[in-house]
């Protein structure tokens, strides 16, 4: 998938695959034949049916799980919206590469292949209070980079991000896409105090005043950043390859929300792995009509909540594929 303009996305939509309803129905029949009262595995059953629909088979397996973490830097950091200095983005990328971050440990436990992609860290996006964070060309480059990173052989894709300052970008995107009071979308991020949160709100109000009346893709360019655009590209490429996606926290979900505003069905193949402790995430999930797999009070980013949810999806498929039916086990049904 190679986008040459931000409006290309509209022409892709009619050809994107949809869930295979026959495979999903066959998986539902299997669930009802397994040695348990129907429905007793609750949302594990829903996850198995979700995977069946998107993988197009009644007995989906996860042989290959890919985790992609995109990192970017943000011009809005010039406004003092971030408690940690911007160089932490590159320092954490080095930490990911050495295996020292939370995401490395969680990917090992969940058996996911982690790939970290740093997007022009030495060239932060522009300050969105002064102009568009990204040109159309920069937005397209990041979208195409995200799309190209998707392993077409993967059975599931976990997405995450790293970028000092990007909780402000995410809140700005959410406010621009869904409206409401900016204060409802803003939270502490990595640990802003009350004064820091007030600064984030002021900055977002200035950004919203500058960038009015834009469509969803232009909103992405206006507020940034590269990692958000790359997440959009990866979500689209995964869809084209019928690979279900697990989104991470507030920042990752706000990026994908751009696609939802383009067309809500663009996120049909996406689960949200967890609801972050960042307060705007709950409101964002309500706007997208998504229920998180987990609520673990996490607010790290990096894809950490999404890869934890991968373990739950693996558990759902272990039951779905490994359990005996009533007939096979000689267990009497109701
Ligand atoms: O995804 C979340 O829910 C989340 C919530 C709070 C913080 N983060 C991470 O923290 C960074 C952004 O926070 P900040 O304070 O620098 O804007 C960025 O690297 C994110 O991955 C992520
Ligand atoms: C240390 C650190 C690790 C992170 N991982 C994702 N965002 C982060 C922000 C900070 C500050």
UniProtKB/TrEMBL annotation:
<dbReference type="InterPro" id="IPR023195">
    <property type="entry name" value="Nict_dMeBzImd_PRibTrfase_N"/>
</dbReference>
<keyword id="KW-0808">Transferase</keyword>
<protein>
    <recommendedName>
        <fullName>Nicotinate-nucleotide--dimethylbenzimidazole phosphoribosyltransferase</fullName>
        <ecNumber>2.4.2.21</ecNumber>
    </recommendedName>
</protein>
<comment type="pathway">
    <text>Nucleoside biosynthesis; alpha-ribazole biosynthesis; alpha-ribazole from 5,6-dimethylbenzimidazole: step 1/2.</text>
</comment>
<keyword id="KW-0328">Glycosyltransferase</keyword>
<feature type="active site" description="Proton acceptor">
    <location>
        <position position="302"/>
    </location>
</feature>
<comment type="function">
    <text>Catalyzes the synthesis of alpha-ribazole-5'-phosphate from nicotinate mononucleotide (NAMN) and 5,6-dimethylbenzimidazole (DMB).</text>
</comment>
<dbReference type="Pfam" id="PF02277">
    <property type="entry name" value="DBI_PRT"/>
</dbReference>
<dbReference type="InterPro" id="IPR003200">
    <property type="entry name" value="Nict_dMeBzImd_PRibTrfase"/>
</dbReference>
<dbReference type="GO" id="GO:0008939">
    <property type="term" value="F:nicotinate-nucleotide-dimethylbenzimidazole phosphoribosyltransferase activity"/>
</dbReference>
<dbReference type="InterPro" id="IPR017846">
    <property type="entry name" value="Nict_dMeBzImd_PRibTrfase_bact"/>
</dbReference>
<keyword id="KW-0169">Cobalamin biosynthesis</keyword>
<comment type="similarity">
    <text>Belongs to the CobT family.</text>
</comment>
<dbReference type="InterPro" id="IPR036087">
    <property type="entry name" value="Nict_dMeBzImd_PRibTrfase_sf"/>
</dbReference>
């Amino acid at each position: 998938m190679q986008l040459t303009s931000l409006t290309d996305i509209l022409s892709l939509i009619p050809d994107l695959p949809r869930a295979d309803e026959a495979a999903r129905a066959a998986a539902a029949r299997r669930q009802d034949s397994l040695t348990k009262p129907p429905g007793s595995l609750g949302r594990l059953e829903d996850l198995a049916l979700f995977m069946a629909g998107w993988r197009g088979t009644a007995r989906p397996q996860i042989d290959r799980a890919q985790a992609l973490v995109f990192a970017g830097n943000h011009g809005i950091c010039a406004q003092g919206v971030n408690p940690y200095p911007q160089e932490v983005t590159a320092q954490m990328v080095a930490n990911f590469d050495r295996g020292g971050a939370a995401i490395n440990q969680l990917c090992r436990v969940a058996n996911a292949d982690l790939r970290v992609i740093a997007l022009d860290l030495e060239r932060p996006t522009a300050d969105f209070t002064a102009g568009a964070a990204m040109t159309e060309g920069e937005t397209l480059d990041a979208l195409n980079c995200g799309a190209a990173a998707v392993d077409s052989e993967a059975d599931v894709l976990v997405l995450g991000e790293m970028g000092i300052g990007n909780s402000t970008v995410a809140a700005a995107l959410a406010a621009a896409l869904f409206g409401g009071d900016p204060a409802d979308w803003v939270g502490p991020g990595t640990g802003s105090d009350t004064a820091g949160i007030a600064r984030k709100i002021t900055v977002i109000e200035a950004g919203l005043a500058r960038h009015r009346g834009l469509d969803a893709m232009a909103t992405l360019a206006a507020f940034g950043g590269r990692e958000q655009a790359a997440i959009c590209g990866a979500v689209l490429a995964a869809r084209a390859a019928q690979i279900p996606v697990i989104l991470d926290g507030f920042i990752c979900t706000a990026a994908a929300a751009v696609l939802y505003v383009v067309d809500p069905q663009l996120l049909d193949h996406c689960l949200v792995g967890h609801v972050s402790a960042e307060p705007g995430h709950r409101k964002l999930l309500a706007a997208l009509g998504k229920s998180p797999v987990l609520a673990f009070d996490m607010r790290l980013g990096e894809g950490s909540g999404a890869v934890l949810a991968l373990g739950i999806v693996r558990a759902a498929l272990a039951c779905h594929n490994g359990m005996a039916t009533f007939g096979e086990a000689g267990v009497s049904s109701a």
